[in-house]
């Protein structure tokens, strides 16, 4: 199993920004679909953003224009820049990998490797 480690969560006021990171030591990072998901208590985990191996991003409608996903294959690291945060963005954020796909990552359902999560709280 490829270990994924998230970092960068925290508490911020509405309108603020946070940058999440997801690092792995796995050798398949550069050839894997990667994604950010989030979950609040009592709700299903939602797809926030994904990124193809060529860097093509895709976003949930709720975060489009505010969040930016990126990846640095040389560092085996994925990022999620979150700007203009809203209280409804508060959740546990997870990064995930699907080594079986390289494109159309927003559509794949084979995210079988997950990090432990990092909490984001947006509150005044």
End-to-end gap: 39 Å
Strand content: over 45%
Q: Can you give the helix content as a percent range?
A: under 10%
Using the CA coordinates, give the radius of gyration: 13 Å
Question: What letter string, H or E per element, gives the SSE order?
Answer: EEEEEEEEEEE
Number of helices: 0
How many β strands by DSSP? 11
Average pLDDT:
94
The low-confidence runs, each spanning 5 or more residues with pLDDT under 50, are: none
The multimeric state of the shown protein is single chain
Query: Which outline best applies?
Result: globular
Classification by helices and strands = mainly beta
- How does the major sheet shape up? 7 strands, mixed
Give a topology summary.
Layout: E1 4-7, E2 10-12, E3 18-24, E4 33-39, E5 46-51, E6 57-59, E7 67-72, E8 77-82, E9 91-98, E10 113-114, E11 118-122
Parallel strand pairs: 2-11
Antiparallel strand pairs: 1-3, 3-8, 4-5, 4-9, 5-6, 7-8, 9-10, 9-11
3D architecture notes:
A hairpin with a 5-residue loop joins strand 5 (46-51) and strand 6 (57-59). By secondary structure, this protein is mainly β. It has strands at residues 4-7, 10-12, 18-24, 33-39, 46-51, 57-59, 67-72, 77-82, 91-98, 113-114, 118-122. The mean pLDDT is 94. The strands form 2 sheets. Strands 2, 4, 5, 6, 9, 10 and 11 form a 7-stranded mixed beta sheet that branches. The N and C termini lie far apart (39 Å). 0% of the residues lie in helices and 46% in strands. The protein has no helices and 11 strands.
């Amino acid at each position: 199993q490829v270990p994924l480690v998230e970092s960068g969560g925290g508490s911020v006021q509405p309108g603020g920004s946070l940058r999440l990171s997801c690092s792995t030591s796995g050798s398949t990072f550069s050839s894997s679909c990667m994604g950010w998901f989030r979950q609040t208590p009592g709700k299903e985990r939602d797809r926030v953003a994904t990124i193809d191996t060529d860097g093509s991003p895709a976003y949930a409608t709720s975060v489009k224009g505010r969040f930016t996903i990126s990846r640095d294959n040389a560092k085996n690291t994925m990022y999620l820049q979150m700007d203009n945060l809203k209280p409804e963005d508060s959740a546990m954020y997870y990064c995930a990998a699907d080594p079986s796909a390289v494109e159309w990552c927003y559509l794949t359902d084979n995210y079988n490797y997950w990090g432990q999560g990092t909490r984001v709280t947006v509150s005044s």
